[in-house]
Amino acid sequence: MPQKIEDVYGNIKQYINKTPVMTSTTLNKLTESSCFLKCENFQKMGAFKIRGAVNALLNLTKKQKDKGVITHSSGNHAQALSLAASFFNVKATIVMPENAPKVKIEATRNYGGEVIFCGNKPLDREKKTEELIKQHDYTLIHPSNNWNIIRGAGTASYELIHETRDLDYIFAPVGGGGLLSGTSLAVKELSEKTKVIGVEPENADDAFRSIRDNRIYPSTNPNTIADGLRTSLGNITFPIIRDNVHKIILVSEEEIVKAMEFLWTRMKLVVEPSGAVSLAGLLKQKESIRNKRVGAIISGGNIDLTDFFAKFKGVENNSKQ
């Protein structure tokens, strides 16, 4: 029998942070609604992904733990699985594309994961992962298309719903669909009147098209700043989203950047592009959410600020000359 979100939360809560729900008077005035942002950028390793990774590892057999686990990820799931594996003394091998953000590669290694690089196309990472599984008999912990990952991700909404109550909408980003699936399952268990809205970049719109046409479209050459949302729906996440999510909306690259800017300047929150997508969708739908109680999952804050600080140091050095 499937685990309830409440039971999953009870199992993982000692390993994760209970992240804050934040509000903004400016945002409420702008949308003429009551907005509640679930800030998973304050989660361990900087994103919601640790929730699912811990739940997945808790459900492994001893033999599977002894052999080790593997995944493919551009960053946040890579970090999450590496950190979660360190909690249980399990070897984690992470297949990452060569163009993954450097800050995420370094963090994955710092958490103890062994990084193996692959090509930059979505299918490259899957091919390399399959090769390594055949060689070492690792257990695959898929970034999204895994029931334990999905239910773990749903615990973010479990906390949000228990803290805010009576939400009319929850906005969540969608890439592979783990968070959106988990959000919709949590809502189904805890707050059936709440409508779940998925938000996806226009430049990586495979989930939108998949739900529209009732077939899974692969993500091919997605060109979006939201690097965590470049993956495709799977055979588990697709039907969950199809059956439980109210709709998926698309946002432009400009709208994503504006949402990031709002979070930085108005709320002093460092949020990565993928994490700001839900707010971008909320802002785009402000006419339809007027006078409503609205939640949004801010999924992560692992943005690479290396170039920014390098420029600042350059200015500082020049001022000393």
From TrEMBL:
Superkingdom of origin: Archaea
Keywords, alphabetical: Lyase, Pyridoxal phosphate
Lyase in keyword set: yes
A Gene Ontology biological process term: D-serine biosynthetic process
Requisite cofactors: pyridoxal 5'-phosphate
Pfam annotation, one family: PALP
Domain Tryptophan synthase beta chain-like PALP, chain residue ranges per copy: 13-300
GO molecular function, one term: D-serine ammonia-lyase activity
Protein name from the UniProt record: Threonine/serine dehydratase
Organism field: Candidatus Heimdallarchaeum endolithica
